[in-house]
Amino acid sequence: MTLTIHRVASLEGELRAPSDKSLTHRSYMFAGLASGPSRVTHPLRGEDCESTLRCMGQLGLQHEWLSETEVLLTPAARWSQPTEPLDCGNSGTTMRLLSGLLASRELDCTLIGDASLSKRPMKRIGTPLRSMGATFEGDTPPVRILGGNLKGIVYDSPVASAQIKSCCLLAGLGAEGDTIVREPSLSRDHTERMLLAMGASVVRGVLEDGRSTSGISPTDALSPFEFSVPADISSAAFFIVAAAILPQARLVLRDLSVNPTRTGIFDVLEQCRVPFDLGEERSELGEPVADAVVGWARDPLPFEISGPLVPRLIDEIPVMAVLATQCLGTSIIRDARELRVKESDRIELVANGLRAMGATVETFEDGMAISGPTALSGATIDAHGDHRIAMAFAIAGLIAEGTTTITGADAIATSYPNFESDLMRLTIV
Hints:
This protein is an alpha+beta fold. It has helices at residues 21-31, 47-58, 92-103, 123-132, 162-172, 190-197, 233-245, 264-272, 317-324, 346-356, 387-398, 419-426; strands spanning 2-6, 10-15, 38-41, 62-67, 70-74, 86-87, 108-112, 135-137, 143-146, 154-156, 179-183, 202-206, 212-216, 226-228, 250-257, 276-278, 282-284, 287-295, 304-305, 329-333, 360-364, 367-372, 380-382, 403-407, 427-428. Strand 4 (62-67) and strand 5 (70-74) form a beta hairpin. Helix 1 (21-31) crosses helix 6 and helix 7 (233-245) runs parallel beside helix 11. The radius of gyration is 21 Å and the shape is globular.
């Protein structure tokens, strides 16, 4: 699919961004761990989460759609041995988190994915799972897992990664003894919050050297839940940046997930002096939720993303790079080597695309430097099957002179099926 974007005058209105993908994945998986039926409202109906639901179905989880926005999830008394490979589609979250759950069960499972997922590294979860006693074959998909009889470990993760941490903690639910994961800085903590709300024994802290630690004790009695999935801040980020760079823009965001491990974008807005306001917080299954308002910044200042800030906005960096082209000076992104092993090499794709639109970008192994402000020009951008690249350049196209054409935009459906219609509804020509 090709997406064609033209320059617009401004942006205004209210947005309830798609429901959080990370939380939808977990709600489907964790419902399979519960002692009774769970009810999930407003799950994301994107392709990645549907992959998780299908895989859980192969393992015995039953689901019934009560309406377009509500699903009843009934766990099996005992997980089933699948007769076919578990197809994770394009979803690294599905494969990595499910691997942890499968490793703790006496099952023999093969997990496969599409062409993009089949290139992504799985050794990073295979190493700790093997240390716990599982058989794990395959440094890239397909992977084969023979689980059961795990022992809890203390694992020092080389990177701050919610997927690695969650994989280990989920395996630890069925291991003998406690499982502890230590990481350089705190990554997304959705798994810890949700499992804690379900009754798991979760311990968290910070070591003397500044590393984050998360531990879990084995349990087989987690409570069922009712969960209304909040809006995804990573999906909202595209419109947040659009509001920041379009003259006189004002955007109201409803039901936004404001988990502190995910709100790095607001730290960057503060650096840039982009006006925003967060409303009163409420809670959904341990997850903080709030409304927010974001407006236009006439002369945004440059920003720096590095260190502990990186895991708090790793998925937002492609669109933050678009914001950088409009800042008064050079913005720096460092310590983001993880971007090179996402759905694509996002550092190179972002840099090459922005250069094609007229921006000045220097790349490093772990990031980039972007000079501004730059008057962008329309270009043809190949998204290379990466939904966040496609959406980031759609936002760049809103301020570019001429036409911006994005090929491979069908990838947007993996996380934001209504992106184009929301863009048309909110922008002012």
